[in-house]
User: Which sequence fits this backbone?
């Protein structure tokens, strides 16, 4: 079965958007709305177990600030202001791509392999993140881009990947997912996709094991900044860089192992 597409997650996979972007934007929203709450790196890492921004805010207020009795209106205001602040940060160039992201995406497209996105983040900021991280030219060649606005259920539910495969017109074995978290790996696996895991700051912080991944590396690698292999059950040759050829070998090994 030929590799026809690679489908990327966004937050933590393409860039460290959670620690350096969303968390900072939430704190700015709290400040602008006159709330004393501030999320440090450790607390935010714990809150990430709750998928979805509004859901995360609701959980936080119910567990850590029950006296506030936060209603849907307050949660919506905080989330809206946070998104505005995050977009401002993107336009200021605060969020940068993880090592090897642009190189790999460009290489895949050059090789005639489609590059899609499956995230449960809001379309409002996903597009600007892709443009900021990949640049307008590469971002304009992506497709499909599936966001939280396109699905009813968040990861680890596989719905986002199933929608992406449907829009690509592909079977699961013809694509590979690239994820940074255990929730994402589980979503990809449930959709039947082979998966490359590239743990982000919070995945490493939480000590996630990435059960179900077909290859785990600490980055995609750049010349002079090689990727380190953390888990390699198929014994794929990486040699410091995750390339389209590495992705092909991963897909072939994973699909072949299921027969």
Assistant:
């Amino acid at each position: 079965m030929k590799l026809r597409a690679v489908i990327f997650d966004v937050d933590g996979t393409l860039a460290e958007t959670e620690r350096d972007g969303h968390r900072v934007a939430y704190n700015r929203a709290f400040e602008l709305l006159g709330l004393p709450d501030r999320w440090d790196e450790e607390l935010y890492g714990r809150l990430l177990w709750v998928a979805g921004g509004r859901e995360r805010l609701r959980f936080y207020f119910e567990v850590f600030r029950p006296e506030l009795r936060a209603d849907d209106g307050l949660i919506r205001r905080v989330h809206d202001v946070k998104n505005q602040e995050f977009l401002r940060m993107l336009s200021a160039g605060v969020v940068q791509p993880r090592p090897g992201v642009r190189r790999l995406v460009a290489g895949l497209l050059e090789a005639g392999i489609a590059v899609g996105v499956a995230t449960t983040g809001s379309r409002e900021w996903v597009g600007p993140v892709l443009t900021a991280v990949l640049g307008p030219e590469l971002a304009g060649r992506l497709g499909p881009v599936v966001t939280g606005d396109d699905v009813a259920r968040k990861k680890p539910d596989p719905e986002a990947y199933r929608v992406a495969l449907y829009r690509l017109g592909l079977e699961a074995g013809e694509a590979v997912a690239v994820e940074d978290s255990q929730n994402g790996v589980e979503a990809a696996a449930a959709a039947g996709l082979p998966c490359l895991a590239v743990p982000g700051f919070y995945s490493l912080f939480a000590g996630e094991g990435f059960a179900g991944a077909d290859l785990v590396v600490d980055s995609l690698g750049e010349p002079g900044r090689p990727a380190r292999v953390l888990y390699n059950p198929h014994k794929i040759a990486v040699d410091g860089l995750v390339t389209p050829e590495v992705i092909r070998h991963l897909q072939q090994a994973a699909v072949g192992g299921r027969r």
